Amino acid sequence: xxxxxxxxxxxxxxxxxxxxxxxGDQDKYLKGDGTWADPTATLTPIVTTLVGNDSNKSVRTIxxxxxxxxxxxxxxxxxxxxxxxxxxxxxxxxxxxxxxVTLIS
Length: 105
Hints:
Low-confidence stretches: none
Number of helices: 3
Strand content: under 5%
Radius of gyration: 29 Å
Helix content: 25-40%
Distance between the termini: 84 Å
Order of helices and strands: EEHHH
């Protein structure tokens, strides 16, 4: 029996024996075009975009790093007298009648 041929966008494939997989292909799957493919190939760039090159990080670690970065950016742009939530809460507590928060300096 002949080896199968894969389909294309305009022609059907032909039935036959599956093409031989080689050593290292144990995690691949047979595509309709008759080739072996890595099922993670399309996901790898997406995962790399999401977690960077360190795929050993958990989602929790990534979220924590992103939150810390966002908070640091806020704190770095605040005057030293208002760079903690306690300082901001204290100011609000003593200025409850303030109508213009741009008075903070």
